[in-house]
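[Q] Does anyone have a clean structure-token version of this?
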Amino acid sequence: MTGAAKASAVVIGASGGIGKAFETALIEEGAFDVVHGFARSRTGTQYLELLDEASIAAAAAHVAQGPVPTLVIVATGLLHAGTRGPEKALGDLDPEWLAKVYAVNAIGPALVAKHFLPIMPKKGRAVFAALSARVGSISDNRLGGWHGYRASKAALNMLVRNLAIEERRRNDRTVVVALHPGTVDTGLSRPFQANVQPGRLFDPERAALQLLDVIEGLKAPDSGKLFDFEGAEIEF
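[A] Here you go.
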């Protein structure tokens, strides 16, 4: 008898709070023969700049040389940078900032999918997951504001739905999903943690484990949807 086919996992954004926690948890769990962690702060074959398609293509080519990736997680996102934060009102809109937020939150993950989905299995279960956010749900929007972040995450959700439909034609057991991690104690959320309810601020390790549990429970019909850290579907 032959052994089980070898498989790898991929984490994009592995130098961030949640991304690093994903990478560590996947290595510690030992379910994959290889765990690839990519980030712009890394060098050599682990380097990936989300806004540079050539680096994404190179990373995918590197992964394709080894065990087939059956799990790809895009753990990237942009909410604020330097003195620039999410818009509180219409007058705060700035075209350069909007373009950058869209580039990181929507275009980058789409390009990762462009290069990584084709090297994932053509049959059997596989998962491509991108971190989104509840505030990207149009139907759940009650407060307004944060225009660029909300809109870019909504765009990501639509891309996930599109990707799921297209991928179903190639492998109907691939699950393409968006995931909401909750509010996690990372640099992305730090300026906004004062309003978080007690017990709803998660450390990155807990958030990663919660989402890995959600991923483990996903079925083919879940493809193209958005789920929170408890496995509940969030309507787009």
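[Q] Thanks! Anything notable?
[A] The mean pLDDT is 92.
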